[in-house]
Amino acid sequence: MLKKIISNIEISSGIYKMVLEWEEKAFPGQFIMLNCGGRTLLKRPMSICDIDKKILTIVYQLKGEGTKNLSKMKPGDSIEITGPHGHGFDIFKNKKILIVGGGVGIPPLLYLTKELKSEKIYIALGFRSEIYLIDEFKKYGEVFIATEDGSHGKCGYVTDLIKDIIDDIDIIYGCGPKPMLKALKEMAIKAKKPCQISVEERMGCGIGACMVCACKIKDKDNFHYKKVCKDGPVFWAEEVEI
Ligand SMILES: Cc1cc2nc3c(=O)[nH]c(=O)nc-3n(C[C@H](O)[C@H](O)[C@H](O)COP(=O)(O)OP(=O)(O)OC[C@H]3O[C@@H](n4cnc5c(N)ncnc54)[C@H](O)[C@@H]3O)c2cc1C
Ligand code: FES
């Protein structure tokens, strides 16, 4: 389907926010596939950062040719999109929530945080240096920040922020780079807290047809494979091998 771009601006160094016209329903943690044009043949997966009435927002980082093309698109341009795809986060009501996000794993957690509508939400966000989306998250909970260079919040990793909080919460949701998810999974298991994480894998089709995105799932003492695009990207931390 073709969607019209409403705005596409740089909100932090190399980080862009694109706002699009949108009619479809989608759940937090689901993603869309975008045709970025130029010589890129495969569509690129991007998480849904927010949906508000008939508007969808994505936040993306410049990586290669696809995202570079995306960043040059202007308001009024149309873009070919499929989705929403995948299995998103499960929403648990009336719980004390901990949200843990790192880098470009942060955008999908905004829509989740908004939809949780929980009274107590701790939000721990980790960045390399420049921060973004902070004011948006502050509307829904208490925000803690870590940067690797110490320019904002605590100097260090996002997982350093949650050591004193983790025992007090009911459920954890996380999204971010693999090393962060691995550390979060270990902390959640140690603290005996249920934890859902959104996993990132390279994608071909985005609909379960090509097996490019296979991930390992623990099966008692054995393993089997699932597809991140269709069965995920959200899994229980305990079941997925990171
Ligand atoms: C479910 C999901 C949600 C995502 N959400 C976001 C988001 O909200 N914001 C954001 O900035 N990035 C997100 N990504 C990563 C984003 O898809 C890649 O950064 C982007 O595809 C890079 O494309 P490129 O052409 O600029 O880079 P290139 O490196 O030129 O891409 C080459 C190929 O690799 C694939 N690829 C490269 N890196 C990744 C990656 N990390 N994950 C999956 N495929 C990759 C591309 O689809 C393409 O087929 C998400 C990835 C997945 C799987
Ligand atoms: S991307 Fe093709 S099966 Fe997942």
Automatic annotation (TrEMBL):
It comes from the Bacteria. InterPro entries: Cyt_c3_hydrogenase_gsu, Dihydroorotate_DH_ele_sf, Dihydroorotate_DH_Fe-S-bd, Dihydroorotate_DHASE_ETsu, FAD-bd_FR_type, FNR_nucleotide-bd, PyrK_electron_transfer, Riboflavin_synthase-like_b-brl. Residues 1-91 form the FAD-binding FR-type domain. GO terms for molecular function: 2 iron, 2 sulfur cluster binding; electron transfer activity; flavin adenine dinucleotide binding; metal ion binding; oxidoreductase activity. Keywords: 2Fe-2S, Electron transport, FAD, Flavoprotein, Iron, Iron-sulfur, Metal-binding, Pyrimidine biosynthesis, Transport. FAD binds at R44, P45, M46, S47, V59, Y60, Q61, G66, T67. The keyword Nucleotidyltransferase does not apply. Binds 1 FAD per subunit. One of its GO terms (biological process) is 'de novo' UMP biosynthetic process. Pathway: Pyrimidine metabolism; UMP biosynthesis via de novo pathway; orotate from (S)-dihydroorotate (NAD(+) route): step 1/1. Its cofactor is FAD; [2Fe-2S] cluster. [2Fe-2S] cluster binds at C205, C210, C213, C229. Belongs to the PyrK family. HAMAP family: DHODB_Fe_S_bind. Heterotetramer of 2 PyrK and 2 PyrD type B subunits. Responsible for channeling the electrons from the oxidation of dihydroorotate from the FMN redox center in the PyrD type B subunit to the ultimate electron acceptor NAD(+). This is Dihydroorotate dehydrogenase B (NAD(+)), electron transfer subunit. The lineage of its organism: Bacteria, Bacillati, Bacillota, Clostridia, Thermoanaerobacterales. The gene is pyrK.
